[in-house]
Amino acid sequence: MTARILVLVGNGLDTRGLAAALEPFDVTLGTIERGLRHDAPFDEPRAGHLLSRSGPFDGVVLAPAFVDGPDDPTVDNLLDVLTSCFSFIKAAIASFEERAVAGRVIALLPGGATMGKPGEVINSALAGAMLSLFRTVALEMRSTPVTVNTLVYAMRAADGPTEGEVLGDPEALACMIASLLGSGARGINGQEIYALAGADVGRLHP
After folding, report:
1. pLDDT of residue 201
2. Does the residue 202 lie in any domain?
């Protein structure tokens, strides 16, 4: 199996468990922390520069959430993060096209906010905007080897002295990411895949 490089761009999500779960699939996870800032959005040249420092990457994962943001995020904060996401998407696609690589772009969205959890109005708005953005970009990419998909994850309370929440099932996410990175996944494009342990079953998806 050929080793692959996946770059995760986020703003605070603890992805150490995901990095470990990806290792058996020969996928190395490099992380650009705080790349999706809510106070200084990235433009495409800066996003491209940061991605290029990761080497010849095979895929980019965008993991936006206001986990390190203000207590009461605003619409302006949402627009900052969304602007950075779009800049990283454009920079990643430009890199894939320049290198003639069948690259992968993946959004990693929290299940609570995506499914409209009460009390997460701004995060839910961000998740909805990301879903719409990724559907649109997927349509634009349908005649190319680049695919654009969304994975929706669950969270759980951290064990031990670590405070906060961590990914609920990093192994499941790693399996899905490895599948999307595979050469046979060309036909999987513009999809939203839920890893919520059945919490979404029977509910109306956004």
Report:
1. 67
2. no
